[in-house]
TrEMBL record:
<dbReference type="GO" id="GO:0000287">
    <property type="term" value="F:magnesium ion binding"/>
</dbReference>
<dbReference type="Pfam" id="PF00180">
    <property type="entry name" value="Iso_dh"/>
</dbReference>
<keyword id="KW-0809">Transit peptide</keyword>
<comment type="subunit">
    <text>Octamer of two non-identical subunits IDH1 and IDH2.</text>
</comment>
<dbReference type="InterPro" id="IPR004434">
    <property type="entry name" value="Isocitrate_DH_NAD"/>
</dbReference>
<comment type="similarity">
    <text>Belongs to the isocitrate and isopropylmalate dehydrogenases family.</text>
</comment>
<keyword id="KW-0560">Oxidoreductase</keyword>
<dbReference type="InterPro" id="IPR024084">
    <property type="entry name" value="IsoPropMal-DH-like_dom"/>
</dbReference>
<feature type="domain" description="Isopropylmalate dehydrogenase-like">
    <location>
        <begin position="5"/>
        <end position="331"/>
    </location>
</feature>
<dbReference type="InterPro" id="IPR019818">
    <property type="entry name" value="IsoCit/isopropylmalate_DH_CS"/>
</dbReference>
<dbReference type="GO" id="GO:0006099">
    <property type="term" value="P:tricarboxylic acid cycle"/>
</dbReference>
<protein>
    <recommendedName>
        <fullName>Isocitrate dehydrogenase [NAD] subunit 2, mitochondrial</fullName>
        <ecNumber>1.1.1.41</ecNumber>
    </recommendedName>
</protein>
<dbReference type="GO" id="GO:0004449">
    <property type="term" value="F:isocitrate dehydrogenase (NAD+) activity"/>
</dbReference>
<dbReference type="GO" id="GO:0006102">
    <property type="term" value="P:isocitrate metabolic process"/>
</dbReference>
<dbReference type="GO" id="GO:0051287">
    <property type="term" value="F:NAD binding"/>
</dbReference>
<keyword id="KW-0460">Magnesium</keyword>
<dbReference type="GO" id="GO:0005739">
    <property type="term" value="C:mitochondrion"/>
</dbReference>
Length: 335
């Protein structure tokens, strides 16, 4: 039928409401996407958090998925489903762009940053032990293959968006072995990309500089280990108006999962107050990945126009008064 099938993981809490908004807007915009909804309620198999097989099969079949926030089940020894998804499909690079929305004022203007986060290891490896009561150890695992993969992805990405300058953000001054390996790997990979500039920055210094003048980062692509990317992407979101606005793409060799960076917001879930922008912009990253650029532009322009049109058409996180439904209708009107 000339449509692309995409796996939809609606997610928990506000995930249900924001996915519904995406579906309504896509239908109104005639985007050639058919959604295949899957349930990812985790199973605990041999003490390991496991995705339902139908969900895994769907993503492997469609190669592209859009995902709302998933709450981490508490108390039963589960690991985060968000991490389980990244690991299951070896989504080794997490791309997180962050761009000011014209017409939504924050203390920062013209923010246009992008960071790429290693997405499978580091402090997220889940290797922790109690040695004796009161003494614990959490292992930060850094491997050369995973570092090489995300760094090479970074170089390719930098070329593709015409920002031929990689900044490796690290703390090798303290984490001499782990971040040291990341830094050394970057120097090696850089030899394959003579046209891309490579520089290095300490994580604390990048945080300082980003909050002082983010425009210094508008022509570079930052690449960093997992936990640093987690923190720096929230920091970047804060510059433009918060987590309700920032998209992301979890990229693997074959499969990609696009997701909003924010959580399931149980405090406002079910009340019709959630901002679907982050999921909508994630879906635009997805459309561009599928070479549906015109559809991506159409949705993105309508979303940005809606936010710029004033507080009556913005959700509460952007100091507006709009419900999710009202915002959705405005986006449709602006298509
Ligand atoms: C993110 C989130 C996740 C992370 C959580 C929900 C596990 O904060 O995507 O940034 O820590 O990576
Ligand atoms: Mn995070």
């Amino acid at each position: 039928n000339g449509k692309y099938t995409v796996t939809m993981i609606e997610g928990d809490g506000i995930g249900v409401e924001i996915s519904k908004a995406v579906k309504e807007i896509y239908a109104a915009a005639d985007v050639p996407v058919e959604w295949e909804d899957v349930d990812v309620t985790p199973l605990l198999i041999n003490g390991k958090t496991t995705l339902p097989q139908e969900a895994v099969d769907s993503v492997n079949r469609n190669l592209v998925a859009l995902k709302g926030p998933l709450a981490t089940p508490v108390g039963k020894g589960h690991t985060s489903m968000n991490l389980t998804l990244r690991r299951t499909f070896n989504l080794f690079a997490n791309v997180r762009p962050c761009k000011s929305i014209v017409g939504y004022k924050t203390p920062y203007e013209n923010v246009d940053t992008v960071l790429i986060r290693e997405n499978t290891e580091g402090e997220y490896s889940g290797i922790e032990h109690t040695i004796v009561p009161g003494v614990v150890q959490s292992i930060k695992l850094i491997t050369k293959p995973a570092s090489e993969k995300v760094i090479r992805y970074g170089f390719e990405y930098a070329k593709s968006i015409n920002k031929p300058h990689i900044v490796i953000v690290h703390k090798a001054s303290i984490m001499k072995l782990s971040d040291g390996l990341f830094v050394e790997t970057a120097k090696e990979v850089a030899k394959e990309y003579p046209d891309v500039k490579l520089s290095f920055e300490l994580l604390d210094n990048t945080s300082l500089k980003l909050t002082q003048d983010p425009s210094e980062y508008k022509d570079v692509v930052m690449v960093m280990p997992n936990l640093y990317g987690d923190i720096m992407s929230d920091l970047s979101s804060g510059l433009i108006g918060g987590l309700g606005l920032t998209p992301s793409g979890n990229m693997g060799n074959k499969v990609s999962i696009f997701e909003a960076v924010h959580g399931s917001a149980p405090d406002i879930a079910g009340k019709g107050l959630a901002n679907p922008t982050a999921l909508l912009l994630s879906s635009c990253m997805m459309l561009r990945h599928m070479s549906l650029n015109a559809d991506a532009d159409k949705i993105e322009n309508a979303v940005l126009k809606t936010i710029a049109s004033g507080p009556a058409n913005r959700t509460g996180d952007l100091k507006g008064t709009a419900t999710t439904q009202h915002f959705t209708e405005q986006v449709i009107a602006n298509l």
